[in-house]
Amino acid sequence: MRAKREYRNRERTEVAVLDALVDRADDGMSVFELRAAVEVDIDELEDALSTLKQDDLIVVDSGSETVIKPAERVVPETPAEGDGEQSIGDWLRERLPF
Question: Which Pfam families match (predicted)?
Fold first, then answer.
């Protein structure tokens, strides 16, 4: 599943983090799981997480193990049709430098 459309106009790493978290919205993910899912270096991941936290798009649960979850408003209510397909806007964002 992917994050809601209104949260997709962000840096590529931030969108990748949100998408990974939405896929595991109930359980959340550790930083190590996120790093493996997003496949970026730790500094880039740290910057993305910091920005997402500032914008209240993620929730950090510091229990016995720190788990990161998407904010409720980021998770779509139902999977959209063609969820696995890439939109023209997404295709352009990947190919044009920002």
Answer: DUF6432 (PF20024)
